[in-house]
Amino acid sequence: MATALVLVLDAVGITTLEYLLDHYSGSVHFPNLSRLGLGTLLDERHRSRFGPFDGGSYAACLEQASASADSVVGHREMMGIVDARIYDLFPDGFPTNYIAALEDRIGRKTMFNQMAGGVEAIEQNAAEHARTGHPIAYASMCDPLLQLAMDEAVIPVSEQRRIADIALVLALEMGIPITRVIDRAFVKTPDGEYVRTANRHDAVLPLPGSTLVDILTERGVRTVAVGKTSDLVNTVYSEELHLSAVDQGVDLRFVHPKKKDTNPFTMQGVLHALNDARNDTFIFANCVDTDALYGHTRDVDGAIHCIEECDRVLPMIEARLQMGDLLIITADHGMEHRADYGYHNREPVPLLVKRVGRGKDLGGMEFGQTLGLTQVGDLVAQMFGCAGEFRRSIIKIPA
């Protein structure tokens, strides 16, 4: 029995992490990421803020091969799809004929239809949404996608997901160049705050062919998606974990003072998947808060504390790995902090790899056999004896 875990720290590229450290004056606590070699990947000026690298794992930077900095693109590249297409944004909102057709299909009017950040769009329109039941439609400020924010008390989660799926199908029919439609489920707390929940749903472009997940499934490997990975690489998994609670007695902490973060649920899902690993298992997990909660809002302190909490949980994960198991920590893209917003950025990302009981060479694994982030998938494929098949299956979508 073998287990491989790929843990994606969303938007924590190398350039992004250096920016965060440059703008954070306090001490940072990354003992476990330091031990795995993260500090060795950064500029010399930052290395004194990290602990020692124990030399028992592999650390490197990866350059994305795909053209766009996007979560769909990055996660799919890890699983074997390299996309050379460049996607555009929608600064003036979506075409009126598309919005009208969408309203006709879902049987509801929509509202807003402007480019905005998610928190801004929800806070500006939540009261009117509650009164009318109209989904809040808005264009992302950094991704080629439509977002539909809906209160769980106004529109049930099942209907929210149906609306998002319909919106993507319609966009494909009408030639609207987006990679996905996101259902941004949210709730209003007793103190009047609007909080996006773990019931987010991504309706994503159909895959152009088989991925590493499909190859592993055909070989009898149990595949588990935790968090949004099943939405981004939308193939069939053995199990999809979207949790909204933390088990009693498990020391998982919320970073946000109002508990808006969802990483604790992701980490709980990872722990569940590891506890249930009885046969060969591949776990693909995404910690989204460094992107959705702290990245786009340019919250430097929040992002640092979020990474610190991910670091703190790593020993719980490692304690559940057996001899020979594989742990990979990486990112899908970076986050450029501009004056008005945080924008996805195409930049080098960390590759931290540990194989329990093996040294820096991970028991003889090969590096650099494929391009870009597909090297993440290639290491997993080597673990399960299907590297040749994976390398032959890599898809390159032309510009």
Folded structure, characterized:
- The protein contains 13 helices and 17 strands.
- The strands form four sheets. Strands 2-16-13-1-12-10-11 form a seven-stranded mixed β-sheet, sandwiched between helices.
- The model has no long low-confidence stretch (mean pLDDT 95).
- Helix 6 links the parallel strand 6 (145-151) and strand 7 (180-188).
- It folds into two domains: 3-80 and 211-397, Alkaline Phosphatase, subunit A (3-Layer(aba) Sandwich), CATH 3.40.720; 96-204, 2-Layer Sandwich (Alpha-Beta Plaits).
- It is α/β, with parallel strands linked by helices and 399 residues long.
Topology:
Layout (H helix, E strand, L loop, with lengths): L2 E7 L4 H9 L8 H5 L22 E5 L8 H8 L2 E3 L12 H11 L4 E5 L2 H15 L3 E4 L5 E7 L5 H18 L5 E9 L5 E3 L4 E4 L7 H7 L3 E5 L2 H4 L6 E3 L21 H13 L5 E7 L1 H4 L7 H19 L7 E5 L3 E4 L4 E4 L3 E7 L18 H10 L3 H7 L1 E3 L2
Parallel strand pairs: 1-12, 1-13, 3-17, 4-5, 6-7, 10-11, 10-12
Antiparallel strand pairs: 2-16, 5-6, 7-8, 7-9, 13-16, 14-15
Helix pairs in contact: 4-6, 9-11, 12-13
Feature tags:
Alkaline Phosphatase, subunit A; Alpha-Beta Plaits; seven-stranded mixed sheet; six-stranded mixed sheet; globular
Mean pLDDT: 95
Classify the helix fraction into a percent range. Answer: 25-40%
Rg from alpha-carbon coordinates:
20 Å
Strand order of the largest sheet: 2-16-13-1-12-10-11
Number of domains: 2
Instruction: Using the coordinates shown, work out and report the CATH topology of the largest domain.
Output: Alkaline Phosphatase, subunit A
Regions with little confidence, pLDDT below 50 for 5+ residues: none
CATH superfamily of the largest domain: Alkaline Phosphatase, subunit A
Cα shape: globular
Strand content: 15-25%
Structural class: alpha/beta
**The level-1 CATH class of the largest domain:** Alpha Beta
Distance from first to last alpha carbon: 41 Å
Number of E strands:
17
Largest sheet: 7 strands, mixed
Order of helices and strands: EHHEHEHEHEEHEEEHEHEHEHHEEEEHHE
Number of helices: 13
Do you know the CATH architecture of the largest domain? 3-Layer(aba) Sandwich
